[in-house]
Amino acid sequence: MGDLDEATAAFNKWADKHNDDYVAWIMTPDTFGPGNTTDVGWLGTWPDGNAYGAQQDAWMATGRKEFQGFMDAVTCDTHEMATSLPISAPEEPPENGVVMFSRCELDDDSDFDDAIAAHRAVAESMGGESGANSWLFFPGSGSTDQGSDDVYWLVLGFDNYTELGAAMENYTNGGGYEKVMDILDDVTECSGTTTWVARRATN
């Protein structure tokens, strides 16, 4: 991890010169199934496609040294793109925290508009997911689900485990499960949840 931190520090110096809009987190797995072989992940975000394109061009033209630093630290066998939609999220990107990813699949006769409305209703009924920030990720290039008409990801973020534990208690013993199931019934089904520790990588 120290090698990755060194590569990240070099990247931050490069990014300060080329794009201040990019925000990234180093992700380490916490709870996951036997199929997960990931030691560490990198979740990077741009505010829009224009910022993404401009930074990628700059990275390809001038980031060779910084790129090699990452290659010396980690081996990445998966690179996926996604479009995110905030459901209950802060205006500014969060810092460190705990993040849960769930794979969701639309029910028959349901569409993404139905799912978006349902997740917003869940966030409102749970008091902003009991302290959670939430987004929907729609798979793009590199994803095995890209182009799917019925698959997306629900992403819940908490500032710490205390918030996560409170949300779990509300969901399990505070009536949250019944509320959520009632709202999502016949709209979508989310499963395969994994939990990750997120550490802000960029300045």
Percent of residues in β-strands = 25-35%
Strand order in the largest sheet: 2-1-7-4-6-5-3
Secondary-structure-based class equals alpha+beta
* N-to-C span: 18 Å
Provide the CATH topology of the largest domain.
Alpha-Beta Plaits
Low-confidence runs:
none
Tell me the CATH architecture of the largest domain. 2-Layer Sandwich
**Mean pLDDT, all residues:** 93
**Count of alpha and pi helical runs:** 7
Shape field: globular
Rg on CA atoms, Å? 18 Å
Q: What is the share of helical residues?
A: 40-55%
Give the tally of structural domains: 2
CATH class of the largest domain: Alpha Beta
Number of strands: 7
The secondary-structure element order is HEEHHEEHHEEHHE
Give a short account of the largest sheet: 7 strands, antiparallel
Please provide a brief summary of the model:
By secondary structure, the protein is of the alpha+beta class. The protein contains 7 helices and 7 strands, in the order αββααββααββααβ. The protein has helices at residues 2-18, 49-62, 64-73, 112-125, 127-131, 161-173, 176-184, and strands at residues 23-31, 41-45, 82-88, 97-106, 133-139, 151-158, 188-200.
